[in-house]
Amino acid sequence: MEGNANLYAVLAEGFPADRRQVAIETPERNYSWQDIDALSGKLASLLQGLSLPAGSRVAVQVQKSPMALMLYLATLRAGLVYLPLNTAYKAAEVEYFLTDAEPAVIVCDSQNLSWVSELATKTGTPHVYTLDANGTGSLADAMAAADPVFETVSSRPDDLAAILYTSGTTGRSKGAMLSHENLASNAQVLNDYWGWSSNDVLLHMLPIFHVHGLFVASHGALLAGAKMIWLPKLDVEQALEHLPRSTVMMGVPTYYVRLLADPRFGRETCRNMRLFISGSAPLLSETFNEFKERTGHTILERYGMSETIMLTSNPCDPAMGERLAGTVGRPLPGVSVRVVDDEGKGVPTGTIGNVQVRGPNVFSGYWRMPEKTREEFTADGWFRTGDLGHFGGDGVPDDYLTIVGRSKDLIISGGYNVYPKEIEEVIDAMPGVNESAVIGVPDPDFGEAVVAVVVPREGADLDADAMIASLKESLANFKVPKRIHFVPELIRNTMGKVQKNALREQYK
Ligand code: MLC
Ligand code: AMP
Q1: What is the per-residue pLDDT across 109-138, written as a single tens digit (0 to 9) for each?
Q2: From the CB of 211, is ligand 2 less than 6 Å away?
Q3: Whose CA is nearest to atom 6 of ligand 1?
Q4: C-beta 208 within 6 A of ligand 2
Q5: Which of 78, 146, 227, 501 could staple 46 via S-S, CB 3.0–4.6 A?
Q6: Domains in the chain and their CATH numbers?
Q7: Residue 318: is it exposed, middle or buried by C-beta count within 10 angstroms (0-12/13-18/19+)?
Q8: pTM for the full model?
Protein backbone atom coordinates (compact mmCIF):
# COMPACT_ATOMS: atom_id res chain seq x y z
CA MET A 1 0.00 0.00 0.00
CA GLU A 2 1.25 3.51 -0.77
CA GLY A 3 2.20 5.80 2.13
CA ASN A 4 0.19 8.80 3.20
CA ALA A 5 0.80 11.75 0.83
CA ASN A 6 -0.41 14.22 3.48
CA LEU A 7 2.22 16.94 3.67
CA TYR A 8 2.30 16.82 7.47
CA ALA A 9 3.04 13.09 7.37
CA VAL A 10 5.86 13.76 4.90
CA LEU A 11 7.34 16.57 7.03
CA ALA A 12 7.00 14.53 10.24
CA GLU A 13 9.21 11.82 8.77
CA GLY A 14 12.05 14.30 9.23
CA PHE A 15 11.32 15.07 12.90
CA PRO A 16 14.12 13.82 15.20
CA ALA A 17 13.71 10.56 17.13
CA ASP A 18 14.04 12.45 20.40
CA ARG A 19 10.88 14.54 20.37
CA ARG A 20 11.89 16.37 23.54
CA GLN A 21 14.43 18.46 21.63
CA VAL A 22 13.64 22.10 20.96
CA ALA A 23 11.99 22.61 17.56
CA ILE A 24 10.99 26.26 17.85
CA GLU A 25 12.67 28.83 20.04
CA THR A 26 11.03 32.20 20.67
CA PRO A 27 12.14 34.93 23.08
CA GLU A 28 9.21 33.88 25.32
CA ARG A 29 9.27 30.07 25.29
CA ASN A 30 10.45 26.96 23.50
CA TYR A 31 8.37 24.37 21.68
CA SER A 32 9.61 20.78 21.38
CA TRP A 33 8.87 18.41 18.51
CA GLN A 34 6.46 16.72 20.90
CA ASP A 35 4.71 20.09 21.36
CA ILE A 36 4.35 20.46 17.59
CA ASP A 37 2.73 17.06 17.40
CA ALA A 38 0.42 17.65 20.37
CA LEU A 39 -0.58 21.26 19.64
CA SER A 40 -1.22 20.67 15.94
CA GLY A 41 -3.01 17.48 17.06
CA LYS A 42 -5.31 19.39 19.40
CA LEU A 43 -6.11 21.96 16.73
CA ALA A 44 -6.70 19.22 14.16
CA SER A 45 -9.07 17.48 16.62
CA LEU A 46 -10.90 20.76 17.05
CA LEU A 47 -11.19 21.30 13.29
CA GLN A 48 -12.31 17.71 12.76
CA GLY A 49 -14.94 18.20 15.44
CA LEU A 50 -16.55 20.86 13.22
CA SER A 51 -17.47 18.04 10.79
CA LEU A 52 -16.54 20.04 7.71
CA PRO A 53 -16.56 18.48 4.26
CA ALA A 54 -13.08 17.44 3.04
CA GLY A 55 -11.38 20.30 1.23
CA SER A 56 -13.09 23.05 3.25
CA ARG A 57 -11.01 26.21 3.43
CA VAL A 58 -9.58 27.59 6.66
CA ALA A 59 -8.81 31.30 6.16
CA VAL A 60 -6.25 32.77 8.55
CA GLN A 61 -5.27 36.41 9.06
CA VAL A 62 -3.24 36.50 12.26
CA GLN A 63 0.06 37.88 13.53
CA LYS A 64 3.01 35.53 13.19
CA SER A 65 3.37 33.16 16.14
CA PRO A 66 4.25 29.50 16.74
CA MET A 67 0.54 28.81 17.29
CA ALA A 68 -0.20 30.22 13.83
CA LEU A 69 2.24 27.66 12.43
CA MET A 70 0.46 24.95 14.49
CA LEU A 71 -2.82 26.05 12.93
CA TYR A 72 -1.32 25.62 9.46
CA LEU A 73 -0.05 22.14 10.32
CA ALA A 74 -3.39 21.22 11.93
CA THR A 75 -5.25 22.26 8.79
CA LEU A 76 -3.06 19.92 6.74
CA ARG A 77 -3.50 17.10 9.24
CA ALA A 78 -7.29 17.45 9.19
CA GLY A 79 -7.37 17.30 5.38
CA LEU A 80 -8.58 20.89 5.07
CA VAL A 81 -7.21 23.67 2.86
CA TYR A 82 -5.09 26.45 4.36
CA LEU A 83 -5.74 29.98 3.13
CA PRO A 84 -3.26 32.47 4.62
CA LEU A 85 -3.94 36.21 4.35
CA ASN A 86 -1.44 39.06 4.63
CA THR A 87 -1.97 40.83 7.96
CA ALA A 88 -1.81 44.15 6.12
CA TYR A 89 -5.05 43.47 4.20
CA LYS A 90 -7.95 45.78 5.05
CA ALA A 91 -11.62 44.83 5.34
CA ALA A 92 -12.41 45.49 1.67
CA GLU A 93 -9.57 43.19 0.60
CA VAL A 94 -10.49 40.43 3.08
CA GLU A 95 -14.12 40.58 1.95
CA TYR A 96 -13.08 39.61 -1.56
CA PHE A 97 -11.14 36.57 -0.32
CA LEU A 98 -14.02 35.38 1.86
CA THR A 99 -16.50 35.82 -0.97
CA ASP A 100 -14.28 34.08 -3.51
CA ALA A 101 -12.90 31.21 -1.41
CA GLU A 102 -16.02 30.61 0.73
CA PRO A 103 -14.04 29.32 3.68
CA ALA A 104 -15.74 27.36 6.46
CA VAL A 105 -13.52 28.92 9.09
CA ILE A 106 -11.84 32.29 9.53
CA VAL A 107 -9.28 32.90 12.26
CA CYS A 108 -8.33 36.53 13.00
CA ASP A 109 -6.62 38.69 15.59
CA SER A 110 -8.97 39.63 18.42
CA GLN A 111 -8.46 43.33 17.63
CA ASN A 112 -10.05 42.73 14.20
CA LEU A 113 -12.88 40.55 15.50
CA SER A 114 -15.65 43.11 15.07
CA TRP A 115 -15.12 43.81 11.37
CA VAL A 116 -14.14 40.22 10.57
CA SER A 117 -17.32 38.92 12.27
CA GLU A 118 -19.37 41.36 10.23
CA LEU A 119 -17.72 40.13 7.04
CA ALA A 120 -18.20 36.51 8.10
CA THR A 121 -21.91 37.07 8.55
CA LYS A 122 -22.14 38.93 5.24
CA THR A 123 -20.25 36.23 3.31
CA GLY A 124 -21.71 33.23 5.14
CA THR A 125 -18.50 32.04 6.82
CA PRO A 126 -19.87 29.86 9.64
CA HIS A 127 -16.94 29.60 12.10
CA VAL A 128 -14.99 32.59 13.44
CA TYR A 129 -12.12 32.25 15.94
CA THR A 130 -9.46 34.59 17.28
CA LEU A 131 -5.78 33.86 17.73
CA ASP A 132 -3.45 36.53 19.08
CA ALA A 133 0.32 36.73 18.77
CA ASN A 134 0.72 35.45 22.35
CA GLY A 135 -1.32 32.33 21.56
CA THR A 136 -4.48 33.40 23.39
CA GLY A 137 -7.96 33.89 21.93
CA SER A 138 -11.11 31.90 21.31
CA LEU A 139 -9.19 29.31 19.28
CA ALA A 140 -6.97 28.54 22.28
CA ASP A 141 -10.05 28.33 24.52
CA ALA A 142 -11.81 25.99 22.13
CA MET A 143 -8.79 23.69 21.72
CA ALA A 144 -8.13 23.42 25.48
CA ALA A 145 -10.23 20.28 25.87
CA ALA A 146 -9.40 18.81 22.45
CA ASP A 147 -7.47 15.55 22.09
CA PRO A 148 -3.75 16.06 21.40
CA VAL A 149 -3.56 12.61 19.83
CA PHE A 150 -4.70 12.92 16.24
CA GLU A 151 -4.19 10.52 13.41
CA THR A 152 -3.26 12.66 10.39
CA VAL A 153 -5.87 12.01 7.71
CA SER A 154 -4.79 10.10 4.66
CA SER A 155 -4.39 12.39 1.64
CA ARG A 156 -3.85 11.70 -2.03
CA PRO A 157 -0.97 13.48 -3.75
CA ASP A 158 -3.26 15.84 -5.67
CA ASP A 159 -5.54 16.74 -2.77
CA LEU A 160 -5.51 20.48 -2.13
CA ALA A 161 -3.34 21.62 0.78
CA ALA A 162 -3.38 25.40 0.40
CA ILE A 163 -4.73 28.27 -1.65
CA LEU A 164 -2.45 31.28 -2.03
CA TYR A 165 -3.99 34.40 -3.45
CA THR A 166 -1.83 36.35 -5.85
CA SER A 167 -2.96 39.57 -7.47
CA GLY A 168 -3.74 39.56 -11.14
CA THR A 169 -3.01 41.99 -13.96
CA THR A 170 -6.75 42.59 -14.21
CA GLY A 171 -6.83 43.75 -10.60
CA ARG A 172 -8.70 40.68 -9.34
CA SER A 173 -6.72 38.30 -7.08
CA LYS A 174 -6.46 34.67 -8.15
CA GLY A 175 -6.20 31.76 -5.73
CA ALA A 176 -3.34 29.45 -6.69
CA MET A 177 -4.32 25.90 -5.71
CA LEU A 178 -1.38 23.94 -4.30
CA SER A 179 -1.58 20.23 -3.59
CA HIS A 180 0.12 18.11 -0.94
CA GLU A 181 2.39 16.75 -3.67
CA ASN A 182 3.30 20.23 -5.01
CA LEU A 183 4.47 21.25 -1.56
CA ALA A 184 6.00 17.95 -0.44
CA SER A 185 7.99 17.37 -3.62
CA ASN A 186 9.44 20.89 -3.48
CA ALA A 187 10.32 20.54 0.22
CA GLN A 188 12.09 17.24 -0.46
CA VAL A 189 14.08 18.59 -3.39
CA LEU A 190 15.19 21.67 -1.42
CA ASN A 191 16.07 19.54 1.59
CA ASP A 192 18.70 17.81 -0.48
CA TYR A 193 19.73 20.71 -2.75
CA TRP A 194 20.37 23.14 0.09
CA GLY A 195 22.07 20.48 2.24
CA TRP A 196 19.70 20.75 5.20
CA SER A 197 20.57 18.68 8.29
CA SER A 198 19.25 18.34 11.82
CA ASN A 199 22.27 20.35 12.96
CA ASP A 200 20.98 23.43 11.17
CA VAL A 201 19.39 26.32 13.04
CA LEU A 202 17.12 28.48 10.90
CA LEU A 203 16.67 32.14 11.79
CA HIS A 204 13.02 32.56 10.77
CA MET A 205 12.06 36.24 10.38
CA LEU A 206 9.80 36.13 7.32
CA PRO A 207 6.04 36.52 7.44
CA ILE A 208 4.13 33.21 7.25
CA PHE A 209 1.35 34.16 4.84
CA HIS A 210 3.45 33.72 1.67
CA VAL A 211 5.41 30.98 -0.04
CA HIS A 212 8.78 32.21 1.21
CA GLY A 213 8.22 32.15 4.97
CA LEU A 214 5.44 29.57 5.22
CA PHE A 215 6.65 26.92 2.81
CA VAL A 216 10.29 27.39 1.82
CA ALA A 217 11.60 28.37 5.24
CA SER A 218 9.31 26.43 7.61
CA HIS A 219 9.17 23.23 5.55
CA GLY A 220 12.96 23.31 5.21
CA ALA A 221 13.51 23.26 8.95
CA LEU A 222 10.63 20.88 9.76
CA LEU A 223 11.64 18.28 7.18
CA ALA A 224 15.28 18.43 8.33
CA GLY A 225 14.32 18.14 12.00
CA ALA A 226 16.23 21.40 12.46
CA LYS A 227 15.54 24.03 15.11
CA MET A 228 14.00 27.38 14.19
CA ILE A 229 14.68 30.61 16.04
CA TRP A 230 11.30 32.20 15.47
CA LEU A 231 11.00 35.98 15.39
CA PRO A 232 7.79 37.89 14.63
CA LYS A 233 9.41 39.95 11.84
CA LEU A 234 12.65 41.36 10.54
CA ASP A 235 14.17 43.42 13.31
CA VAL A 236 17.87 44.14 12.78
CA GLU A 237 18.58 44.37 16.51
CA GLN A 238 17.13 40.91 17.12
CA ALA A 239 18.75 39.51 13.99
CA LEU A 240 22.16 40.65 15.29
CA GLU A 241 21.43 38.92 18.58
CA HIS A 242 20.36 35.59 17.09
CA LEU A 243 22.46 35.26 13.92
CA PRO A 244 25.57 34.08 15.80
CA ARG A 245 23.63 30.96 16.92
CA SER A 246 22.10 30.32 13.49
CA THR A 247 23.29 28.40 10.43
CA VAL A 248 20.63 29.30 7.83
CA MET A 249 18.76 32.55 7.11
CA MET A 250 16.26 33.37 4.38
CA GLY A 251 15.08 36.80 3.39
CA VAL A 252 13.88 39.06 0.63
CA PRO A 253 16.61 41.47 -0.58
CA THR A 254 15.42 44.22 1.81
CA TYR A 255 16.53 41.98 4.72
CA TYR A 256 20.09 41.94 3.40
CA VAL A 257 20.06 45.67 2.62
CA ARG A 258 18.93 46.43 6.19
CA LEU A 259 21.52 44.10 7.78
CA LEU A 260 24.28 45.73 5.72
CA ALA A 261 23.09 49.18 6.81
CA ASP A 262 24.09 48.32 10.37
CA PRO A 263 27.84 48.75 10.94
CA ARG A 264 27.80 46.06 13.67
CA PHE A 265 26.86 43.39 11.11
CA GLY A 266 29.90 41.49 9.87
CA ARG A 267 31.98 38.32 9.95
CA GLU A 268 31.63 37.84 13.69
CA THR A 269 27.81 37.95 13.50
CA CYS A 270 27.90 35.24 10.84
CA ARG A 271 30.48 33.00 12.48
CA ASN A 272 28.24 29.91 12.57
CA MET A 273 26.29 30.64 9.41
CA ARG A 274 26.26 28.08 6.61
CA LEU A 275 23.80 29.58 4.16
CA PHE A 276 22.11 32.90 3.37
CA ILE A 277 19.26 32.60 0.86
CA SER A 278 17.58 35.46 -0.99
CA GLY A 279 14.49 35.47 -3.17
CA SER A 280 11.02 36.87 -3.97
CA ALA A 281 12.57 39.91 -5.69
CA PRO A 282 15.78 40.61 -7.61
CA LEU A 283 18.90 40.87 -5.45
CA LEU A 284 21.08 43.72 -6.70
CA SER A 285 24.65 42.76 -7.58
CA GLU A 286 25.88 45.55 -5.34
CA THR A 287 24.11 43.99 -2.33
CA PHE A 288 25.49 40.56 -3.29
CA ASN A 289 29.03 41.96 -3.57
CA GLU A 290 28.91 44.12 -0.48
CA PHE A 291 27.59 41.16 1.52
CA LYS A 292 30.43 38.96 0.33
CA GLU A 293 33.01 41.56 1.20
CA ARG A 294 31.60 42.28 4.65
CA THR A 295 30.83 38.72 5.79
CA GLY A 296 32.79 36.37 3.53
CA HIS A 297 29.45 34.69 2.64
CA THR A 298 28.03 34.41 -0.86
CA ILE A 299 24.25 34.84 -0.82
CA LEU A 300 22.43 32.06 -2.64
CA GLU A 301 19.71 33.54 -4.87
CA ARG A 302 16.78 31.43 -5.93
CA TYR A 303 13.59 32.05 -7.92
CA GLY A 304 10.01 30.97 -7.39
CA MET A 305 6.41 32.08 -7.17
CA SER A 306 3.13 31.34 -5.42
CA GLU A 307 1.94 29.13 -8.28
CA THR A 308 5.06 26.96 -8.34
CA ILE A 309 6.94 27.32 -5.06
CA MET A 310 10.68 27.09 -5.86
CA LEU A 311 11.83 26.75 -9.47
CA THR A 312 15.54 27.48 -9.75
CA SER A 313 18.46 27.94 -7.39
CA ASN A 314 22.09 28.85 -7.46
CA PRO A 315 24.18 25.91 -6.25
CA CYS A 316 24.62 25.30 -2.55
CA ASP A 317 27.39 22.72 -2.90
CA PRO A 318 30.49 24.49 -4.29
CA ALA A 319 31.32 21.31 -6.22
CA MET A 320 28.20 21.96 -8.32
CA GLY A 321 29.26 25.42 -9.40
CA GLU A 322 29.47 29.04 -8.33
CA ARG A 323 26.72 31.28 -6.98
CA LEU A 324 26.54 34.06 -9.52
CA ALA A 325 25.26 37.57 -8.82
CA GLY A 326 22.27 38.58 -10.91
CA THR A 327 21.33 35.01 -11.83
CA VAL A 328 18.79 32.73 -10.16
CA GLY A 329 20.78 29.57 -10.91
CA ARG A 330 19.71 26.27 -12.41
CA PRO A 331 16.32 24.58 -12.56
CA LEU A 332 15.88 22.47 -9.43
CA PRO A 333 15.98 18.69 -9.90
CA GLY A 334 12.67 17.55 -11.42
CA VAL A 335 11.73 21.10 -12.51
CA SER A 336 11.84 22.01 -16.21
CA VAL A 337 12.32 25.61 -17.30
CA ARG A 338 12.27 26.89 -20.88
CA VAL A 339 12.63 30.34 -22.41
CA VAL A 340 10.49 30.95 -25.49
CA ASP A 341 9.56 33.78 -27.83
CA ASP A 342 6.01 35.13 -28.14
CA GLU A 343 5.16 32.36 -30.64
CA GLY A 344 6.28 29.73 -28.12
CA LYS A 345 9.51 28.82 -29.92
CA GLY A 346 12.63 28.22 -27.85
CA VAL A 347 15.20 31.04 -28.05
CA PRO A 348 18.99 30.57 -28.11
CA THR A 349 21.00 31.01 -24.91
CA GLY A 350 21.64 34.64 -24.12
CA THR A 351 18.38 35.72 -25.77
CA ILE A 352 15.58 37.15 -23.64
CA GLY A 353 12.22 35.40 -23.79
CA ASN A 354 9.22 34.27 -21.74
CA VAL A 355 9.98 31.90 -18.88
CA GLN A 356 7.75 28.81 -18.81
CA VAL A 357 7.92 25.96 -16.31
CA ARG A 358 6.74 22.43 -15.63
CA GLY A 359 7.20 20.00 -12.76
CA PRO A 360 5.61 18.23 -9.77
CA ASN A 361 5.77 21.57 -7.91
CA VAL A 362 3.58 23.47 -10.40
CA PHE A 363 0.03 24.21 -9.18
CA SER A 364 -3.06 22.72 -10.81
CA GLY A 365 -4.84 26.01 -11.50
CA TYR A 366 -6.58 29.06 -10.09
CA TRP A 367 -9.48 28.56 -7.70
CA ARG A 368 -12.75 28.70 -9.64
CA MET A 369 -11.08 30.36 -12.64
CA PRO A 370 -10.90 27.64 -15.32
CA GLU A 371 -10.69 30.25 -18.06
CA LYS A 372 -7.75 32.08 -16.46
CA THR A 373 -6.07 28.74 -15.75
CA ARG A 374 -6.33 27.72 -19.41
CA GLU A 375 -4.83 31.03 -20.49
CA GLU A 376 -1.83 30.64 -18.19
CA PHE A 377 -0.91 27.14 -19.38
CA THR A 378 0.33 26.31 -22.88
CA ALA A 379 -1.33 23.56 -24.90
CA ASP A 380 1.58 21.26 -24.04
CA GLY A 381 1.21 21.84 -20.31
CA TRP A 382 3.80 24.51 -19.45
CA PHE A 383 2.93 27.32 -17.01
CA ARG A 384 3.56 30.84 -18.24
CA THR A 385 5.30 32.58 -15.33
CA GLY A 386 4.94 36.09 -16.77
CA ASP A 387 8.66 36.60 -16.10
CA LEU A 388 11.18 37.47 -18.79
CA GLY A 389 14.63 35.92 -18.69
CA HIS A 390 17.46 34.22 -20.48
CA PHE A 391 19.69 31.22 -20.02
CA GLY A 392 23.48 31.79 -20.12
CA GLY A 393 24.86 34.89 -21.85
CA ASP A 394 27.44 37.35 -20.46
CA GLY A 395 29.89 34.55 -19.63
CA VAL A 396 27.30 32.84 -17.43
CA PRO A 397 26.98 29.02 -17.83
CA ASP A 398 24.28 28.04 -20.31
CA ASP A 399 22.10 26.33 -17.71
CA TYR A 400 21.90 29.34 -15.35
CA LEU A 401 18.74 31.44 -15.63
CA THR A 402 18.70 35.23 -15.30
CA ILE A 403 15.40 37.06 -14.70
CA VAL A 404 15.46 40.43 -16.43
CA GLY A 405 11.93 41.69 -16.03
CA ARG A 406 8.29 40.86 -16.31
CA SER A 407 5.76 40.78 -19.10
CA LYS A 408 3.05 41.35 -16.47
CA ASP A 409 2.66 44.87 -15.08
CA LEU A 410 3.86 44.12 -11.56
CA ILE A 411 5.77 46.01 -8.88
CA ILE A 412 7.69 44.07 -6.22
CA SER A 413 8.16 46.22 -3.12
CA GLY A 414 10.10 44.70 -0.23
CA GLY A 415 9.13 41.25 -1.52
CA TYR A 416 5.40 42.02 -1.73
CA ASN A 417 3.71 42.05 -5.13
CA VAL A 418 1.66 45.07 -6.07
CA TYR A 419 -0.40 45.05 -9.26
CA PRO A 420 -0.75 48.64 -10.54
CA LYS A 421 -4.20 47.97 -12.01
CA GLU A 422 -5.70 47.29 -8.57
CA ILE A 423 -4.35 50.58 -7.19
CA GLU A 424 -5.26 52.57 -10.32
CA GLU A 425 -8.87 51.39 -10.05
CA VAL A 426 -9.13 52.69 -6.49
CA ILE A 427 -7.43 56.01 -7.34
CA ASP A 428 -9.55 56.52 -10.47
CA ALA A 429 -12.69 56.16 -8.38
CA MET A 430 -11.62 59.00 -6.03
CA PRO A 431 -13.39 62.34 -6.40
CA GLY A 432 -11.49 64.83 -8.56
CA VAL A 433 -9.40 62.18 -10.33
CA ASN A 434 -9.52 61.93 -14.09
CA GLU A 435 -7.08 59.05 -14.48
CA SER A 436 -3.92 57.59 -13.02
CA ALA A 437 -0.91 55.40 -13.69
CA VAL A 438 0.83 53.47 -10.93
CA ILE A 439 4.49 52.60 -11.42
CA GLY A 440 7.44 51.16 -9.52
CA VAL A 441 10.55 53.29 -9.08
CA PRO A 442 13.92 52.18 -7.65
CA ASP A 443 14.05 52.38 -3.87
CA PRO A 444 17.16 51.71 -1.77
CA ASP A 445 15.22 49.87 0.96
CA PHE A 446 12.28 48.18 -0.78
CA GLY A 447 13.97 47.59 -4.15
CA GLU A 448 10.98 49.18 -5.83
CA ALA A 449 8.60 51.74 -4.36
CA VAL A 450 5.02 52.33 -5.49
CA VAL A 451 4.42 55.78 -7.01
CA ALA A 452 1.22 57.16 -8.57
CA VAL A 453 1.00 59.67 -11.39
CA VAL A 454 -2.43 61.28 -11.29
CA VAL A 455 -4.32 63.50 -13.73
CA PRO A 456 -6.83 65.64 -11.78
CA ARG A 457 -10.19 66.58 -13.26
CA GLU A 458 -10.40 70.13 -14.45
CA GLY A 459 -10.75 72.52 -11.54
CA ALA A 460 -10.15 69.80 -8.93
CA ASP A 461 -7.83 70.69 -6.06
CA LEU A 462 -6.25 67.37 -5.02
CA ASP A 463 -4.04 66.92 -1.99
CA ALA A 464 -1.51 64.06 -2.14
CA ASP A 465 -1.34 63.47 1.62
CA ALA A 466 -5.11 63.34 1.94
CA MET A 467 -5.31 60.92 -0.99
CA ILE A 468 -2.67 58.64 0.58
CA ALA A 469 -4.52 58.67 3.92
CA SER A 470 -7.74 57.80 2.14
CA LEU A 471 -6.12 54.96 0.14
CA LYS A 472 -4.87 53.43 3.39
CA GLU A 473 -8.48 52.93 4.47
CA SER A 474 -9.17 50.39 1.75
CA LEU A 475 -5.74 49.10 0.67
CA ALA A 476 -2.96 47.32 2.55
CA ASN A 477 -0.31 49.92 3.42
CA PHE A 478 2.40 48.28 1.32
CA LYS A 479 0.24 48.82 -1.80
CA VAL A 480 -0.34 52.51 -1.11
CA PRO A 481 1.84 54.85 -3.20
CA LYS A 482 4.70 56.37 -1.23
CA ARG A 483 4.36 59.46 -3.46
CA ILE A 484 1.73 60.96 -5.76
CA HIS A 485 2.67 63.24 -8.66
CA PHE A 486 0.05 65.39 -10.40
CA VAL A 487 0.30 65.92 -14.16
CA PRO A 488 -2.02 67.53 -16.74
CA GLU A 489 -1.92 64.36 -18.88
CA LEU A 490 -0.28 60.93 -19.10
CA ILE A 491 2.35 60.18 -21.73
CA ARG A 492 0.77 57.86 -24.33
CA ASN A 493 2.02 56.10 -27.46
CA THR A 494 0.32 56.36 -30.84
CA MET A 495 -1.99 53.49 -29.85
CA GLY A 496 -3.18 55.52 -26.86
CA LYS A 497 -1.45 53.23 -24.38
CA VAL A 498 0.10 54.86 -21.31
CA GLN A 499 3.91 54.78 -21.61
CA LYS A 500 4.83 53.39 -18.22
CA ASN A 501 8.49 53.04 -19.18
CA ALA A 502 8.68 56.77 -19.87
CA LEU A 503 6.92 57.52 -16.57
CA ARG A 504 9.32 55.19 -14.70
CA GLU A 505 12.24 57.01 -16.31
CA GLN A 506 10.82 60.40 -15.40
CA TYR A 507 10.03 59.65 -11.75
CA LYS A 508 12.87 57.29 -10.79
C1 MLC B 1 5.83 47.50 4.99
N2 MLC B 1 5.54 48.62 4.33
C3 MLC B 1 5.89 48.48 3.06
C4 MLC B 1 6.39 47.17 2.96
N5 MLC B 1 6.35 46.59 4.18
N6 MLC B 1 5.81 49.30 2.00
C7 MLC B 1 6.23 48.85 0.83
N8 MLC B 1 6.72 47.60 0.65
C9 MLC B 1 6.80 46.73 1.71
N10 MLC B 1 7.26 45.50 1.55
C11 MLC B 1 4.96 49.89 4.79
C12 MLC B 1 4.54 49.83 6.23
O13 MLC B 1 3.19 49.47 6.31
C14 MLC B 1 4.79 51.25 6.67
O15 MLC B 1 3.79 52.06 6.16
C16 MLC B 1 6.02 51.66 5.91
O17 MLC B 1 5.99 50.85 4.74
C18 MLC B 1 7.33 51.45 6.64
O19 MLC B 1 7.34 50.16 7.10
P20 MLC B 1 8.60 49.43 7.73
O21 MLC B 1 8.60 49.61 9.20
O22 MLC B 1 9.81 49.79 6.99
O23 MLC B 1 8.16 47.96 7.40
P24 MLC B 1 8.55 46.64 8.10
O25 MLC B 1 7.49 46.27 9.03
O26 MLC B 1 9.96 46.72 8.60
O27 MLC B 1 8.44 45.65 6.88
C28 MLC B 1 9.31 45.72 5.77
C29 MLC B 1 9.73 44.27 5.43
C30 MLC B 1 8.45 43.49 5.15
C31 MLC B 1 10.64 44.31 4.23
C32 MLC B 1 10.48 43.66 6.61
O33 MLC B 1 7.74 44.13 4.11
C34 MLC B 1 8.69 42.05 4.83
O35 MLC B 1 8.93 41.24 5.73
N36 MLC B 1 8.66 41.68 3.57
C37 MLC B 1 8.82 40.29 3.14
C38 MLC B 1 7.75 39.95 2.19
C39 MLC B 1 7.75 38.44 1.84
O40 MLC B 1 7.85 37.60 2.70
N41 MLC B 1 7.62 38.13 0.56
C42 MLC B 1 7.63 36.78 0.07
C43 MLC B 1 6.53 36.62 -0.95
S44 MLC B 1 6.59 34.96 -1.60
P45 MLC B 1 2.93 52.98 7.09
O46 MLC B 1 2.09 53.68 6.10
O47 MLC B 1 2.21 52.06 8.00
O48 MLC B 1 3.92 53.85 7.77
C49 MLC B 1 7.17 35.13 -3.19
C50 MLC B 1 7.62 33.92 -3.91
C51 MLC B 1 9.07 33.73 -3.72
O52 MLC B 1 7.34 36.19 -3.66
O53 MLC B 1 9.79 33.59 -4.70
O54 MLC B 1 9.48 33.75 -2.55
P1 AMP C 1 4.52 35.89 -5.95
O2 AMP C 1 3.47 35.93 -6.96
O3 AMP C 1 4.31 36.78 -4.77
O4 AMP C 1 4.78 34.52 -5.55
O5 AMP C 1 5.83 36.48 -6.64
C6 AMP C 1 6.47 35.76 -7.65
C7 AMP C 1 7.29 36.65 -8.50
O8 AMP C 1 8.39 37.18 -7.76
C9 AMP C 1 7.94 35.93 -9.66
O10 AMP C 1 7.05 35.74 -10.74
C11 AMP C 1 9.08 36.87 -9.99
O12 AMP C 1 8.62 37.94 -10.78
C13 AMP C 1 9.47 37.40 -8.62
N14 AMP C 1 10.68 36.73 -8.08
C15 AMP C 1 10.78 35.74 -7.19
N16 AMP C 1 12.07 35.43 -6.92
C17 AMP C 1 12.81 36.27 -7.70
C18 AMP C 1 14.22 36.48 -7.89
N19 AMP C 1 15.13 35.79 -7.22
N20 AMP C 1 14.59 37.41 -8.79
C21 AMP C 1 13.70 38.15 -9.46
N22 AMP C 1 12.37 38.01 -9.31
C23 AMP C 1 11.92 37.08 -8.44
Answers
A1: 999 999 999 999 999 999 999 999 999 999
A2: yes
A3: 478
A4: no
A5: 146
A6: 7-19+30-183 (3.40.50.12780), 328-406 (2.30.38.10), 410-507 (3.30.300.30)
A7: exposed
A8: 0.97
